[in-house]
Design goal:
Blueprint: H1 2-20, E1 29-33, E2 53-57, E3 60-62, E4 66-70, E5 77-82, E6 90-100, E7 109-115, E8 132-139, E9 152-159, E10 174-179, E11 190-197, E12 201-207, E13 215-221, E14 234-240, E15 247-260, H2 278-321
Antiparallel strand pairs: 1-15, 2-5, 3-4, 4-15, 5-14, 6-11, 6-15, 7-8, 7-14, 8-9, 9-10, 11-12, 12-13
Helix pairs in contact: 1-2
Length: 323
């Protein structure tokens, strides 16, 4: 009984440790968390400051719930930016957010930023215009863009000189985008997942229809699309209201460095494979690694059995020698 319980415990711990080795959608791409660019409740340190983030404008932090960029009031702007730049070449940013408010019209929206500029209020969803880097805009108010359903999510790559086409909801600046009519007041947590492999791919997936059901908003590949993000860019979020209002809240941000130690290249989440080697090679390698893992586990359990049997024999002989 004692041995059976011990063996089960050891094997369970070994399986847990193996599962904790985080991989990326059954590939050889590993995810390494970046604490410097992640944000979760309570958001602030014990001294009511954040070690890795600055915030300003109308931003309000409620440590048990959210970082609210704007309240459901007119003419508000709020922002939060990382203190250190994101220098990883391959990364994934997953943000949970919430958009809600009263009334029939809502706006204006919020943005996710990866730019050389940081913590600078302005007219583009609460942050500066003429930015250099990437902006992902969650636009909830339609100004003048016929034929497009709102809310609308779009990407813009700024060169530091081009202004955002606010009058036409960024139509002249759009790198890629999609309509996402269900991101306000969704019945499940609303999330966005931005994945970047330098000089290879940029993907944005959204969750708002059902839990763990991701919808691809856009997928860009090089050299077909130009999406080179500055090697030194700050991660940030900003929100804005005007005559129409909404509460724009960031619930959590989880950023990971993506590390591919095989050189096979990126495989987008949910895809069947791409690049040399692809998913089939990954499965073969994982099958071999699992075989080796179980072999080592049985060796370990065998060692425990041997030790237990040896100890039992030794104790029995010692007991007999007394008589």
């Amino acid at each position: 009984m004692w041995f059976s319980q011990l063996a089960s415990t050891v094997l369970g711990l070994a399986l847990t440790a193996s599962a904790a080795s985080s991989t990326w959608q059954d590939t050889d791409i590993k995810m390494l968390p970046l604490r410097t660019h992640s944000l979760t409740s309570p958001y602030l340190d014990s001294d009511m400051h954040s070690r890795w983030w600055d915030f300003g404008g109308d931003t309000v932090i409620r440590t048990d719930q959210y970082v609210r960029l704007t309240a459901d009031r007119q003419s508000q702007q709020g922002w939060i930016f990382s203190r250190v730049p994101l220098t990883a070449t391959n990364w994934e940013i997953e943000v949970e957010f919430k958009l809600h408010g009263e009334g029939h019209l809502h706006g204006d929206g919020f943005a996710l930023w990866l730019t050389k500029q940081r913590a600078t209020p302005g007219p583009v969803f609460g942050s500066t215009d003429n930015f250099e880097g990437l902006g992902i805009f969650f636009d909830t108010y339609k100004n003048n863009r016929p034929g497009t359903s709102f809310p609308y999510v779009m990407a813009m790559l700024g060169d530091g000189q081009t202004s955002y086409d606010k009058a036409h909801d960024g139509k002249a600046n759009e790198l890629a985008g999609c309509s996402a009519r269900g991101i306000r007041d969704a019945s499940v947590p609303t999330k966005a997942r931005l994945t970047y492999f330098q000089d290879k791919s940029l993907n944005l997936d959204l969750q708002y229809k059902s839990d763990n059901a991701w919808i691809n908003c856009f997928s860009l590949t090089s050299p077909e699309s130009n999406f080179n993000i500055p090697s030194v860019a700050y991660l940030g979020f900003s929100g804005e209201t005007g005559e129409v209002t909404d509460s724009h809240e960031i619930i959590s941000v989880n950023t990971h460095n993506l590390y591919d130690h095989t050189g096979n290249g990126p495989v987008r989440r949910g895809s069947k494979g791409s690049g040399r080697g692809g998913r089939s090679a990954s499965k073969k390698k994982k099958s071999g690694s699992w075989t080796w893992f179980f072999f080592k586990s049985f060796l370990f359990v065998g060692a425990i059995v041997g030790s237990y049997v040896g100890y039992t024999v030794y104790r029995s002989q010692k007991r007999q020698s007394r008589f």
